[in-house]
Design a protein that fits this description.
By secondary structure, the protein is of the alpha/beta class. It has 2 domains: 111 residues, Aspartate Aminotransferase, domain 1, CATH 3.90.1150.10; 241 residues, 3-Layer(aba) Sandwich (Aspartate Aminotransferase, domain 2), CATH 3.40.640.10. 42% of the residues lie in helices and 17% in strands. It is built from 14 helices and 13 strands. It has a 7-stranded mixed beta sheet with strand order 3-9-8-7-6-4-5, sandwiched between helices. Helix 3 crosses helix 10. It is globular. Bound molecules: pyridoxal-5'-phosphate (PLP). The site of pyridoxal-5'-phosphate has 11 residues, from helix 3.
């Protein structure tokens, strides 16, 4: 279901719309001001190079490519994996299917196939992968699509920040490799999936062939994502990035903030999950329907019989100063670096009052 933005004229007091709303920390701003820079298009920027090496290392991949956004990272990955007339599969409501304008089809040339959520919200089963592959022609005729790629999303944003547990992640990758497909992981929030399981990000990702990670979701950097993959793959992806206008010159100023994010924000990321768990519990105490979140994304639906729609609930909260988004049949609230205990308490108080008044 498409997400819907609720715009209120009331200023936002506590912004829970997304973990992308964070402002760069003082340490990030200082690092940006002092960053050593060069022309990354001509002969590479030293701080970008450092970030690429460091992130690739974290993800246990040979190389990295710094890109402005998660969308561009996914796109250059798919342009590298796919050709025209190919097909890729992704779980229902994956970001790449619903929120990237279908660029995988019209720029990367790949037709999308959707996988069900057989193992819970956002999570297909290895059998789903095998079954999808079996439905493809064994010997494609010249007019048939050729399935080549599985795209996973960990955590799954629209399903509510759900985690593909490590054992399942490995099985999914294995199922895809067994049928001859490569695997790309949209790990925009792999940090959260890792922390929730007490794993490193590369352990949580599993043996994927390429992975996108984001510095501007949860980690609080102002801009930037990284595509990590084998060196030859990254060389080709670098060409696609340039073709899309993503060659950035003195991008070290951005990379510097991302390096601070890895140093200072990654170690504390699980606090966002713990606060999200507390938030969902407070919402349930108000009689709302809010399952315990896996990570930092809380999904909440109006109490049964309240007669309220998610849109009305979101409108009431926004009018009280709580930033939130309607996503499908739920309201989404996201904890992040700029939400400390006191902001969380304020949000709960504002939501409690507004919900009582709306009921
Ligand atoms: C799972 C996921 N992938 C990719 C993206 C795209 O990132 P960007 O907004 O940096 O293009 C997002 C954005 O929210 C996301 O949630």
């Amino acid at each position: 279901m498409p997400s819907q933005r609720y715009n209120s004229l009331v200023p936002i007091k506590v912004d829970l719309r997304s973990d992308t709303v964070t402002k760069p920390s003082q340490a990030m701003r200082q690092a940006m001001a002092q960053a050593e820079v060069g022309d990354d298009v001509i002969d590479r920027d030293p701080t970008v190079r450092l970030l690429e090496e460091r992130t690739a290392n974290i993800m246990a991949q040979p190389a990295g490519l710094f890109v402005p956004s998660g969308s561009m990272s996914n796109l250059v990955a798919l342009m590298t994996h796919l050709g025209r007339g190919d097909r890729y599969f992704a779980p229902r409501s994956a970001h790449i299917l619903t929120h990237e304008l279908g660029t995988a089809a019209w720029l990367a040339g790949g037709m999308a196939g959707e996988l069900p959520w057989s193992l819970g919200p956002g999570i297909p089963s290895p059998d789903d992968v095998t079954a999808a592959a079996q439905e493809e022609p064994a010997k494609p005729a010249y007019y048939d699509l050729i399935a080549r790629l599985l795209c996973l999303e960990n955590t799954h944003n629209q399903a509510g920040g759900t985690v593909i547990r490590q054992a399942v992640a490995f099985q999914l990758v294995d199922a895809a490799h067994q049928v001859g497909w490569s695997v790309h992981l949209d790990g925009a929030r792999i940090w959260h999936a890792a922390a929730a399981q007490g794993l490193t990000p590369s352990q949580a990702a599993g043996p994927v062939d390429s992975v996108t990670v984001c510095f501007s979701k949860g980690l609080g950097a102002p801009v930037g994502s990284m595509l990590c993959a084998p060196t030859g793959f990254i060389e080709q992806a670098r060409r696609w990035r340039k073709a899309l206008g993503g060659g950035m010159r003195q991008a070290g100023v951005l990379a510097a903030a991302a390096l601070v994010a890895l140093d200072q924000e990654l170690p504390r990321i699980d606090q966002d999950r713990l606060r999200a768990v507390r938030l969902a519990s407070a919402l349930r105490e108000l009689g709302l329907d809010s399952p315990e979140p896996d990570t930092n994304i809380v999904m909440v639906r109006p109490a049964a019989g309240s007669g309220l729609t998610p849109g009305q609930l979101a409108a009431a909260w926004a009018a009280a100063g709580v930033g939130c988004l309607v996503m499908g049949t739920a309201v989404r609230l996201v904890t992040h670096r700029d939400i400390d205990d006191s902001a969380l308490g304020q949000a709960v108080d504002l939501i409690a009052n507004a919900t009582r008044q709306a009921a």
